[in-house]
Amino acid sequence: CRNLIHTGLNNLRIYFHSPVKIQEEKLKQYGFLPLALNEKMPEEKRTRVFTRKAPFHYGWDWGPRLVTCGLWRPVRFAAWSNACLDEVYLQPVSIQKGKADYVAHVSVRADKKLPVRLLLKIDGKEAIVPLDTTVTRGMNELHIPFSIPAPRLWWPNGMGEHYLYQVQVMLVSGRSLLDEKNRRLGVRTIELVQDKDSIGTSFYFKVNGIPVFMKGADYIPGDIFTTRVTKEKYEKLVKDAVNANMNMLRLWGGAIYEDDVFFDLLDENGILVWQDFMFACDMMPDDSLLLESIRKEAEYNVKRLRHHPCMALWCGNNENYRGWDEWHWRDKYPPEQAKRLWKAYEKIFYDILPSTVHRYHPEAAYWESSPQAGKNQRADRKSGDEHDWAIWFGQCPFSDYGREVPRFVSEYGVQSYPDMKTIRLFAEEQDLFYRSPVMEHRQRSKMDWIEKGLNGNGMIMRYIEMYYRKPKDFFAYVYLSQLMHGEGLKYAIETHRKNQPRCMGSLYWQINDCWPTMSWATIDYTGRWKGPHYFVKKANAPVIIVPEAKDKGTLTVHVVSEKQKSFDATVKLQVVDFYGRQKYFYAFPVKVKANTSTLCFEQKKFVEANNIHPYYVVCVASLYKQDSLITRNWTYFVPARQMPLPKPSLVVRTVKKTEEWYELEVSSSSLARGVYLYTDHVEGHFSDNFFDVLPGEKVRVKFFLQETDSPEAVFKVYSLTDSY
Known about the structure:
TIM Barrel, 20% helix, 12 helices, six-stranded parallel beta sheet, alpha+beta, Immunoglobulin-like
């Protein structure tokens, strides 16, 4: 652009057209409307597919329609003389315990023939003999092998360190440093394993040769206005994922390709990424300019993100194939229109995107659509991944998570309300009632296709009443929504984990919100943990014990361990009544197998055989290694709404206080279910919350302050019997 600039002040004028108006014109030219689900407009005006813009800006069933336009990431002019480094890609060739072999693919752009020297340093030490060569005008591709002896491997969260080598590539001519690029290198192998087996085809990831059960959630942008997402907000989100024992986030395809700093944080914390390309719940037109734009978009982002060790998978789209096949979108069009739409689908997801990944990130896996059993194969729970919405949209009970457990569950969940302090950001006192106009406005999930007038608020109440008694007031409704949400995710995660190796992934919908609302998120828009996030944290622990009281009185106990070595332990199984009186006890040894699930107890007609009164007891399973308690969990034989729980006498006292946290002790005279601790005026989060307290026990909980100069915290307590 040298001919376009001049000495002195230069002005760059950018004129933005309304994307909505442009899309309307394109629709008129195209002649018919490709389907775009979830866009918050009348169906005949859903035009988002005609531009490459964040789909969620057009509205979704958890967010508003706010179609923004403008420059939202930095724009820069790059000036250079003689030659510069255009790209540096460190491609793994062979990674072994003793040595990691790589090739550095270096693109050098030159404006003339020039002798240059390339230097490559790793952690400040030269890794190659300096390469002397001559570049010519234009783009020059150089390929430089190098090795790292006895490499420190990069591991996902919970499996080891996330070491990142500092790689420096320098371009020198004579005594002048022309350019340099810095990359962080996480040495690891990752593969998506899809082998035929007795069920269908497996779907799991191996990291450094070890099968890894993926524990995590789906992520959406942290704000409807994407420029408001700061590094601090990214940092908190990643920290919250780590604290919930996650090792993967699925970056959903109706959003944006996130900022570099987010991927840096995921690298540093061992959180793997399932990266959707930005297509969700729609069919794309076969416009040649649009297809070329998609190709450039894919190339740019694959090249931008491929050096991050967190990158585990590239996925073509979210639910586009499910819509076309299972939801019968194809039947909405005459044959010629359907043929055009399917041709565009094949061009994008079977040609442009996979060829881009293969060319620029060849060691990465590509998956055409989520969910699917395989290319052009409907999701069937026997192969591939699944979005399990029988619970929530299908109105099935939580126990349905155990029906023919899928191989990898990449979406599932239920809704709940945010923290009361968050609700008060958008609601006045007079708005605080079930299905008030304000609550209806904030609820974006409309379900008239299930029942006229039904929405997410109504479905929350249906699920509350499935398991609990009717809430007595709005506070109780909000509390029960979070308790129900947590119990649902707990059951799902435990069910998925105990069914490994059949099932090898559990990513719930969704970890976060883009505005203050009621949704599937476990962390609300302000960053406050909702009740379900505490349940997720415990269900994702490295070692869990899972007792389950099934229909007809059967009791099973599984132990799930992601430890890489087996170990001997003892299970203590007891049934106690509301006041702690023991009704059953059995202790037995168990060999906890490495990196899998072990069924260690099963008794049919357990309730009948042991003369248990199911409405008046809780079953507690504890796992001990020698005399040390590793983990504990409990189950109930009937829903809470059927249990005549006594109102507990709960006591909360502060045991210790520092500048950063409080340590609390919680005790109760009788069984207390869903114990919820909160403060009205001090921000922070608890180490545990929404937990059950057995009579006579003392539970220690920490409250971590958000600000060290916070005022004195006054802690309040609420439990299930307070809600009715």
